[in-house]
Amino acid sequence: MSAQHAGDPATFAADVLDEGPAEIEFEPGVASRRPVKTSAAGALVRDSAGRVLFVVPVYKPVLDIPGGMTEDDESPKAAALREIREELGLDVRLGRLLVVDWTPRNGVWRDCHQFVFDGGVVDGAVACDPELRGVEYLTLDDARPRIYPSLHRRLTLAVTALESGTTRYAEFGRET
User: Fold this and answer.
1) Which domains, ranges and CATH numbers included, belong to the chain?
2) Where is the Nudix hydrolase domain positioned along the sequence (predicted)?
3) 59, 90 Cβ separation under 8 angstroms
4) Taking Cα atoms as reference points, which of 161, 80, 60 lies closest to residue 173?
5) How many CB atoms lie within 10 A of CB 25?
6) pTM of the predicted model, to two decimals?
């Protein structure tokens, strides 16, 4: 079983066995011609005042939410949990999926499926990763000039999903 799997290890192992032997290519090269998509996952973490937790990365000029890119054979939820542990030193219990958002290619970055999970309420989080300058709790309005517009749209949908109990699907932060 993949160490990155966020579910029950015994169930996951049984599910893998139930799939049968690894699939082979009947038409050589067909798999290598398929596009490669990336995925990333993060968490909407709030403080007790309702402000959103943002991380301040050293590698880009904008704020982001805790989370990051998935690794090979890692689920989005497992990636979010791993990144939160690495970035903030927290072992949180992620709640439900709030938003799935597709973002188009941007410069060196491929198009990506972005997953936002409910990260619950955490007061007093601190950065503990050298990739971060720190953390800030901000309202979405206060964060708006310091985050990408698509992230602002995605997080607005995440707050709506949290309040409504309904997961949202978006493309570049716009619900479709």
Assistant:
1) 36-175 (3.90.79.10)
2) 36-161
3) no
4) 161
5) 9
6) 0.88
Percent of all residues in the chain with a pLDDT value above 90, rounded to a whole number:
76
DSSP state of 111: P
For the chain, the farthest-separated pair of C-alpha atoms sits apart, in whole angstroms, at: 57
Rounded to 5°, the CA angle 103-105-111 comes to: 55
Q: What is the mean pLDDT of the chain?
A: 92
Q: H or E stretch including 83? A: helix 76-88
24, pLDDT greater than 90 = no
Alpha-carbon distance 49 to 89, whole Å? 21
**Token pair for residue 6?**
């966020």
